Amino acid sequence: MRKRAVKMVAAYLLTILFLLFLNFLLPRLLPGDAIIAMYSGHEIAMTEEMYAELVRMHGLDLPLHEQFLAYITQLAHGDLGYSYICHASTADLIMGALPWTLLLVGTSFILSAVAGIVLGVESSWRRGGRFDEALLTFMLLLDGIPSIALGIIALTVFCLYFGWFPSAGAMTPYSSVEGIGHIKDVLWHLVLPLATLTLSMIPGDYLLIRNSMMLTIREPYVLTARAKGIKKRRIKYLHAARNAILPFATRIGIRLAYLITGALFIETIFAYPGLGLLTYSAISNRDLPLMQGILTVSVLMVLLINIVVDLMYKKIDPRVENAY
Amino acid sequence: MHIKPFKEFKKDKIGVAGLMLILLLITTAILAPVIAPHDPWDYSAPAFQPPSWEHPLGTNDIGYDIYSELVWSLRTSILFGIAVAAIACTIGLVLGVSAALIGGMYDMVVMRIADALLAIPTIMILILIAAYFKPSTTVLIIALSLVLWQTTARGVRAQTLSLKTKLYVKAAKNAGAPTSYIMYRHVMPELFPLYAMGFVTKARIAVFMEAGLSFLGIFDPTTKSLGIMMSYAMRYLYLDVWFNWLLPPVIALSLLIISLGFISYAIEEIFDPRLRRNNATPI
Fold first, then answer.
1. If you average pLDDT over every residue of chain B, what do you get?
2. Which of A109, B82, B183, B282 has the most beta carbons within 10 angstroms of its beta carbon?
3. Higher model confidence: residue B214 or residue B243?
4. Beta-bridge mates of residue A82
5. Measured between CB atoms, which of A128, A207, A295 is closest to B128?
6. CB-based burial of residue A4 (10 Å sphere; 0-12 exposed, 13-18 middle, 19+ buried)?
7. Record: fold of B5-41+54-271
8. Residue ranges of domains in chain B
């Protein structure tokens, strides 16, 4: 257990180091000037005063270790930098977008996990059968359609052709509906981005669970359970799936990273005002402080989930305690 | 290993379908200069021409032939995928084998870096790197390879560690075989499935990333790319161009990724017979 903990902490520290390298060291190592590298762009006419202020703000006139100290202190205060293009603090911009992304990614995470697990379990139970073959082929096909393509298809078909769903935003602008009407409006805007993101995630979960179930149902204890006459559904979900779900649990962090990537494209396509759309606008405006802030927040988010999963892993798999 | 990979692969319908599809797409990409009727970087007709014999998919907003663009974009996607997969797999192979053989602190550091890379959304790193440097194809190939090697390294390391304890490897060693011979004769063939699998999965991620990054506008704008085509077509959706301009790159990208997914699934099934569908269920 201790060895495992040490490994985990080492990986977390390395992740943070890597983040610092990308955000702090790399722009300073680049040939030329960190300010120019970070703030250059046709949108901003750099004045002398602005340049001087930026140098002071980032402490670029100080030696590197003091710069680093200043950067860390800033970060610890929740200060992620200032976006000159949006004239707002990066942290505020991110905080404004984060709830929408959390709503989208969180709901999609749960929906795709449930669907993937149930379909994977049922499919592996009927392996080689018609249901399994058909579902497997469908899932492999769906897996091949990238989230961008899925989003574009959904947008053209359901928004432009049929006009059933809104093509942009998270709620109707200028509407003054309150209460239930407001919630309905938000959900209505959520349907398409959520459906595409979830659909793009299901095949991965399905294939993972199906493969791991295939190995689990060969275990002798499943045969024993069957011999004892336990109901099929009980064996499937309480005996076999309980163990087959373990590789899924260890991959929650990776799935989250995938989901964030997927959300980036889906939000861009549906103009859904979350972190993804914010990233897209940061890219189009070459707003580097904003990009750095988003990277920091998304990495910390994934890291946090990883820590929670690692801490809970003993609950999910009680054997790990004895494993080391 | 008592598996004949090619014989097994031929039996796998999904794998064969994937292979046929990818061969078709690769042939198209190789023959791009012959197949494309026009120069995709040059004005060839007035803008927004509907599909015709001269221009099978019509022309885009600046009078480029869309069909020619599509064929050349496919070439970019495939080249990018192959380059990233080859580099990332090689890095993974070298780091994985060396970590297993050297062990100690080196092993520890390599594996913790691999762990750390898992938790970072790759696309965010690429976006930031593309913003610092000029978004050139080479920079993106290297950056993507540097973050994709870890799954191969992990698998290769585990496999090499277990091989080290195998009796036949020990026997070869005791008989005086040099390390290079053991590597070449015993270790490398056993690692082949991992390498093949890694290559296909990485190519798949790379193709997706290339399209995604160019869709977001952070790829070398002078190259032809499926993502760039999509993002431009999206801007002219109001002109009803989705059928001849938006859909073709979407379909091409999907076919490419589907074929790679099929192949990787088949490889996985071949080398882990327990996963095979035709395998009699023990219960």
1. 83
2. A109
3. B214
4. A89
5. A295
6. middle
7. MetI-like fold (1.10.3720)
8. 5-41+54-271
